[in-house]
Design brief:
- Two copies of one chain form a homodimer.
- Chain A is mostly helical.
- Chain A has one domain: Farnesyl Diphosphate Synthase (Orthogonal Bundle).
- Helices cover 69% and strands 1% of the residues of chain A.
- Chain A contains 15 helices and two strands.
- Chain A has a two-stranded antiparallel ribbon with strand order 1-2.
- Chain A is globular.
- At the A-B interface, helix 2, helix 4, helix 6, helix 7 and helix 8 of A face helix 2, helix 4, helix 6, helix 7 and helix 8 of B.
Chain lengths: 306, 306
């Protein structure tokens, strides 16, 4: 290969490595950083444990990819990427608590409440949610106020009762109950889909685009959000805990309705591929040119092994 | 609403009744309102149970009073008033959970987790925090974007690890340990003081004022925030559960350091009065004219019986 070649070939791994270097650096520097603004007692340590050194960072990558597609403000994109990851991280901490999923393993490590106690885990989750909105509202002039307000609005909706928290409430109510395909779909549209879609739309809100492009990105976000969950359900059955970094087989053990339990394994795999195709078709419809990363993320997300 | 134009003599009770009518109406209409945007399963019911029909609404009153002092945007003030109350309400729900204070009585009713279960209480608290930021970021043009961003920034800081959550972490670490006066002060500055002060400052941010006025209001907020906690500690010893609407005597039962355990009852009462005087002196320093409500709230807060 000619190293002087000016047109680089897009590879997701190289692109992701660059994005994640920035995201990890920002998270390390900003999350309750002991040298910047020390958090009281063990709280800062618990917050950092919950966020740093782990996770696929899928949501930050979606933010960065969507922002890239609209040539967005890099400061706003990085802050949004970190903010969605904080919301995701807090939801995992609370989800793992004994009164919810009672899980002891996450990202290959003991869960936050196992390591720091339930009360500290509860507080760390609460503080991470607040921190997400702090990240979105810097007062250093790097992100204009209208963009800050819009990003806060999108994140708050995606996290709240009409989004992630609402989906978890449906999840809670559905254990041991048969769900129809439509109900399962609705649960996941809220529980994981809302924040994944918001990641795409917040990235898009870091720049400007036509309303047709935004609609197309919204469709893309809905499709990858759902595909993510279908694949999650598949992996819960087919992968082991060491590969997943979390307890495998727990949906079946808890008698939770999943796409696999409803459709079967093969049909679930086909459904995931169908959603990927749909997501990538939406990218074409967007009329945006620089959608390589979004396209590749849809591939990665559906074909991932953990 | 400026009540003074209609009433010859300012009375806190008349003023509060008017403010609270607006706040209660807004909360009733906005918090997971079943007819507007139904929340899944019991989540909406748990959220409404946590917020509606109870509470002194001290924080909303501070917001409205401070906004009145700077002739603030009424829409922004009402939304801010509701947002700080949502943060307060969520913190109570989480605080009452078995892994924290394990309390069964709040505002004279069973706590949220007693009524809805721990998992639902956890989710309701999480969703209320998100909803606070949703309230602050309407897209109806009623509050300009710069103000929205500023209000989100203030609330996020006051709620997070450098504010309320941080104070609760100190509280958690301090049970059964002797604290110095300075440490107790710092714990309460964060745990309850940060959100009370933010209520004042968010109200002030709904309008415009000189930086000297804002500094004076910040001092007022710090003094009333601390006074509130001193009085809380006094009432925990002197009032009964029926009057308080929550379990009395629990600080001593849990061997928690309080102003009363550190200073004694009489000195605590004097300290509360001293903070009131200090708060009211700051109002004079502010140079603002319409501070009747803020002045009266400092009186009420220190002389309250529950």
């Amino acid at each position: 290969m000619n190293v002087r070649e000016k047109l680089p070939i897009f590879t997701l791994s190289a692109w992701s490595a660059l994005q994640l270097a920035a995201v990890e650096q920002a998270l390390t520097g900003w999350v309750a950083c002991p040298t910047v603004a020390p958090a009281p007692a063990d709280l800062g340590e618990a917050m950092r444990y919950a966020v740093l050194d782990g996770g696929k960072r899928l949501r930050p990558l979606l933010v960065m990819a969507a922002s890239e597609a609209v040539n967005g403000n890099a400061h706003a994109a990085l802050r949004s990427a970190c903010a969605v990851e904080l919301i995701h991280a807090y939801s995992l901490v609370h989800d793992d608590l004994p009164c919810m999923d009672n899980d002891v393993l996450r990202r290959g490590k003991p869960t936050v409440h196992v390591k720091f106690g339930q009360a500290q885990a509860l507080l760390a989750g609460d503080a991470l949610q607040a921190l997400a909105f702090e990240f979105l509202t810097p007062d250093d002039g790097s992100v204009d106020a209208a963009m800050q307000a819009r990003l806060c609005r999108m994140l708050a909706r995606a996290a709240g009762f009409q989004g992630m928290a609402g989906g978890q409430a449906i999840d809670l109510a559905s254990v041991g109950r048969p769900l129809t395909f439509a109900q399962l779909h609705e649960m996941h549209r809220l529980k994981t889909g809302a924040l994944l879609q918001a990641s795409v739309m917040m990235g898009a809100a870091c720049g400007s685009s036509s309303s047709a492009a935004r609609d197309a990105l919204r469709d893309y976000g809905a499709a990858v959000g759902l595909a993510f969950q279908v694949v999650d359900d598949i992996l819960d059955v087919t992968a082991d805990s060491a590969t997943l970094g979390k307890t495998a087989g727990k949906d079946a053990a808890q008698d939770k309705p999943t796409f696999v339990s409803l459709l079967g394994l093969q049909a679930s795999r086909e459904y995931a591929q169908q959603l990927r195709v749909q997501a990538q078709a939406s990218l074409k419809d967007s009329g945006l040119e620089n959608t390589h990363a979004l396209h590749a993320l849809a591939d990665m997300l559906v074909n991932r092994a953990h």
